[in-house]
Every structure is written in structure tokens, then in C-alpha cells.
Amino acid sequence: MLRPLLHFFLIGGLLFSAKAIHEQSRVEGPEITVLVKADATDAEVETAVRDAILLHEARRYRWDRTDPIVYTHLVRNMRFIEPDSPDDDLALFQRAIEMNMQAHDPVVRARLLYRAREALELVPEDRMPSRADLEEHRKTHGERFERQGRVRLQHVFLSRSKRGETLSADARDMRKQLSELGDSVPSGLGDPLPGLRPEQSATPSGVRQDYGQELAEIVEEPVIGTWRGPVSSVYGLHFIKVIAAEPAYVPALDIIGAEVRADRLGEIRKELRKERMTALRKAYRVQIERAP
Length: 292
Fold this sequence. Notes:
Layout (H helix, E strand, L loop, with lengths): L5 E5 L2 E4 L1 H6 L7 E6 L5 H19 L2 H4 L1 H14 L7 H10 L7 H15 L10 H10 L1 H4 L4 E10 H4 L3 H13 L19 E4 L1 H8 L1 H8 L6 E6 L3 E11 L6 H31 L1 E6 L2
Parallel strand pairs: 3-8
Antiparallel strand pairs: 1-2, 4-5, 4-7, 6-7
Helix pairs in contact: 2-6, 4-5, 4-6, 7-13, 11-12
């Protein structure tokens, strides 16, 4: 039996004995036969074996008979097969079990695999990250939590649809006006555009999404205090002056704690899934049969 190695279905999941895993205790588990295609690759065989082990564990502990989704699905199948049956849901479910319907139904199979894989990733209390762990994770993987730099910019727009053939000449006149504007905000200059203000805060990705790559490059590599343009977009021509820039940064843990925790837990779940599946794989005795 596997109990010295594994504690099964505590809180509805597979909780493996950490001590046994780390000490690599060898325990003889069930023997199963896995049928694969004659030309199955090594990777396909391994996937089939892993799925067979998880399904065996799920059925061994009767999830195929106690899971509510499986129950509802089998009852629905029976209602389809026996539309005039006066029996209640429980009677129909029991009859489905007597027919061994759950052993061959693809929906049941998918549900059991889903629950088993979810259980493999269940994080026990002693693997939950502490605040110190999260702070270390934030520092080590700062690129995952980095916030874009922002710029404060002034923006003047000339509409292509409004100005038509005079657009180029109007752009030359606007460049001259802006060069004489000094530090004043360019209120009243140019044409209106939804969401556009004479002075605003923006990120490179936001500018790229709104106006295109050319304007985004001006924001990504700002020259502080200098009007640049005209730069073309699908809407017309733009003049941009970056007046301040804030570099990219990683927020403090107090601000992004939930995000850091979710990221670290994702890593822990992957580690647990690998550890536990490896332990199960070693415990089971598997015979491979290739279909003729």
C-alpha cells in the first residue's frame, strides 16, 4: 500500500508525505496495465502512464462515485437512455454504476483527471510562502512585477481628415508656433481628438495602442523639453514634448503582495505537481501493452 508514502484525499486532495518523498522511501504500489498505440512515442507512452495512474487513484478512492459533476453527468446520460423512466436521480445513478458507465465515459475521465491534477497541486500549510519568502521572490523576479515608466507630455494633433491637402503646410506652421511657445501649455492649438489633452501622463504601451509605434518610440526614448514631430498616425500628424519622465519600477510588497503571492504559489504548485507525480510514478508497477 502507498500510505507510508502518500496521504490520500486529505481536504479532498492528494497530500503526499513530504518526509517520505524527501527520503525517497520505496513503497510497492498497485500494478496497472496501460494500453497504448503500436506506434506511440515515448512521450505519448509517458503521458498515458501518468493519466492511468491518476485515474486509478481517483477510482480507487471512489471519486467516480462521489463527485457531484460525475453524478450529474451520469444521471443526464441515463435520462437520455431511459427518457420515460419514473426513477429518481439516485436510482438512475446507481443503475449507471451497475452498468459501469463511469469507466468508459470521456466526460467522467476528463473530470477525474482534472480533480487529480488539481489535487497534485494542493499546497499544504508548511509550503505556504511567508512574507519574507514573498519579499525575496519580489526582488529575485522583479521583471515579473515591473511597472512601466511613465512620462508627462504635451501633445498637439493635426487631423488628416479635417485639413486634407493643407496638412503638410499646417504642420510647418505649427512647428514654428511650438518653437516659440516656450514652457507654456499648448492649449487651443491643433485639432481635437477623443481622449487627447494638451498635457497628460502616459505609458509607452498606452501611446502605442492609441497612436501607433512611431509615437511610442518618442515616449520610450524621451528628449525632455523638446518638441518632436510631426509624427504620423492613422489619424493625422502629432507633435510631442516630453516634460518629465519616471523610470520603470517594482512596487513595494505592501502594494503588490497579492500578485507576488499568486506568482510564487504558481511556482510551488508546479514543484509539488512534479514531486508528487514522480513519487506516484515510482510507486506504481506499470506494464505497457501496445495495441496490435
